[in-house]
Amino acid sequence: MKSLLRAILFLTWITGFAMPAFAEERSGNLYWAPPTVTVGGEKIDVLLGFIFWLTIAVFFAVQAVYIYYLIRYRRRPGHKAHYSHGNNTMEFWWTIIPTAIFLLLAVWSNRVWFDLTKSTPPPDAVTVDVVGYQFGWDIRYAGADGQLGAGDVKRISMENKFGVDPADPAAKDDFVSNELVIPVGKAVHVLLRSRDVIHSFYVPQFRLYQDAVPGRTIKWVWFQTTRTGDFELACSQLCGTGHYNMKAKIRIVPQEEYDKWYAGKVAAAASAAISEKPAAIAAQ
Ligand SMILES: [Cu+2]
To answer: What is the DSSP letter of 186?
Structure first.
């Protein structure tokens, strides 16, 4: 009895004090996911919150009834046990109510899932090409014409990192970035690919997790941010020895700041293209 009490005290200390004290510091609530910054993330959080609080309510209701019955019908002198065959009315309701709750959750979660993965992004969405490799991310933007040159996994090679068609005029002015810069409030459509093994595009604050599979272009990832901030795109599939270091910066910035950054990148890409030409002629 004494050792059991000691074990309970120890476990209480570990889970209640020691673990929280050593837990990684993060902004927001330690006992919940980090605050979300996307419209889809908010939908997921409402659903998760509902399931969480419903579970809490059911847990306490069941425990209360259980403890009440333990005390009310305990063995004591002068009280005889009596046999109950059950209660059909109660059986009916405690079957119907949980079934209705599960059906509600199934329909609700499927709608959220559909919104996040099956709906098409709005036409003004910023489309970016994100290609994972051992061990990093390459990100391609549409450039001055606002048209991302079509990429194809079949063309991906060491020289052609995004698998673009060299004859495609829309691809000429595309620029590459090692960070994902996003204008706040605008929908972003990610075309996800991998050059070698399975990687995963995971941003907890976006409530977004999608594998990048070699040989495929994942087209259904899109999201809309709700506030500015700095985040990290970390690969979430153990993809090799350098997996721990496979990251890219994500910056959600105001539209003006995004436009400025974009214009700078377009100008840099244009001057690089000009300076490349004489070298190409010299090589002939
Ligand atoms: Cu990876």
So the answer is: S
